[in-house]
Amino acid sequence: MEASPAQISQAVQNLYDTYPFPPEPLLDEPPPGFNWRWQWDAAYNFCTGQMPSRSDIRILDAGCGTGVSTDSLVHLNPQAQVTAIDLSPGALKVARERCQRSGATRVEFHHLSLFDVAQLPGEFDLINSVGVLHHTPDPIRGIQALAGKLAPGGLMHIFVYGELGRWEIELMQKAIGMLQGDKRGDYQDGVKIGRSVFASLPETNRLVKREKERWAMENHQDECFADMYVHPQEIDYNIETLFELIDASGLEFIGFSNPDFWSLDRLLAKAPEALERAQKLDIRAQYRLIELLDPDVAHYEFFLAKPPLPLAIDWSQDEIFLSAIPFRHPCIEGWESQHVFNCDWNLINLTDLEFAFMQACDRNQQDQLTVRDILARVELSIDDVRSLLANKLIMLKTNK
């Protein structure tokens, strides 16, 4: 007999009560590193090409688990009020302790399903839902519920699984389920039998090879192994089914947050005729072609928006560019030094003049200098400043 939505939700709750996820250690300090997708200014800049007009926003972490994302959302957005919900009381207990210990105080936690998110008051400027929709019995109903809580001009950041890059995982999930039989739902038994199967299979086995090359580093923890191989509910997507989900949300698709992967040039630059033909396809067909040619797609990470968003600014026009107010990108690792990692973790080595320009941008919350103002003091070319923008080291705001 097929399980009801209520039974599926209960099974998912039981898994995360048994194995709270993610299992990152609790810290008595803010979390290290940056995820720019969780920082409002950076996310808004990615989606619109400019800075937001305000930072005192409301954020919803929809399916917060043990609070790893919640902790970062609070610390990365010091003017925001954060609300976090999850289905698992066990995971929420860890999330509360995590945020209390790290000093992430601007957060409210609620034991609540995605389907019941309408019970929360008001609307949210940013909704973050990572690794959640694909574990619900009805992802379309879930994304529509979230869309109903998104404020006009707001952004939603979504992460769901991809079927092509998780093919071996699906096979092992089915194998463990067969071996568990009537013990399915006993997640500790599932982890035990799954680990014994991996240990028994020959090293040349495709499932073993994939586990070792891609997942083993995190799966040494039982919480991660259970989440990957013993989960009672998982729906994996391809581009075609993904856009069915997106279209059902009623929101605007802004783009994937790893755009370099979705570049035709990356795969077809050495086949100009094929590239020319591919570029004539509509954008969704181009995405589908890319994942067929590079099927190592284990997840999709993307932004949706509820109109109206501001019109895109053409920063290529020199006068508009020079009149803009530049700010240092908030998600740079290693600042203040001339050797930094940008938000994509690419190492950037700054010249003395570039460093001086960046220092001026860092003070610009108070100074509000334009690009032209700073270039009058720092002998850098406009092309060099454009390079800083392209390398995601600065963000621009219109000078109105």
Write the layout of secondary structure elements.
Elements: H1 5-18, H2 40-48, E1 58-62, H3 68-76, E2 81-86, H4 89-102, E3 107-111, E4 124-130, H5 139-147, E5 150-161, H6 167-180, H7 187-200, H8 206-219, H9 222-229, H10 239-249, E6 252-256, H11 264-268, H12 272-279, H13 283-293, E7 299-305, H14 318-323, E8 325-328, E9 339-341, E10 347-349, H15 352-362, H16 364-367, H17 371-375, H18 382-390, E11 394-397
Parallel strand pairs: 1-2, 1-4, 2-3, 4-5
Antiparallel strand pairs: 5-7, 6-7, 8-11, 9-10
Helix pairs in contact: 5-10, 6-7, 6-8, 7-9
Report on this structure.
By secondary structure, this protein is an alpha/beta fold. The mean pLDDT is 97. The chain has helices at residues 5-18, 40-48, 68-76, 89-102, 139-147, 167-180, 187-200, 206-219, 222-229, 239-249, 264-268, 272-279, 283-293, 318-323, 352-362, 364-367, 371-375, 382-390, and strands at residues 58-62, 81-86, 107-111, 124-130, 150-161, 252-256, 299-305, 325-328, 339-341, 347-349, 394-397. The protein has a seven-stranded mixed β-sheet, covered by helices on one side. A two-stranded antiparallel ribbon has the order 8-11. The protein has three domains: 5-163 and 236-261 and 297-305, Vaccinia Virus protein VP39 (Rossmann fold, 3-Layer(aba) Sandwich); 164-229; 318-397, Arc Repressor Mutant, subunit A (Orthogonal Bundle), CATH 1.10.10. Helix content is 44%, strand content 15%. The chain contains 18 helices and eleven strands. Helix 5 packs across helix 10 (239-249), helix 6 packs across helix 8 (206-219) and helix 7 crosses helix 9.
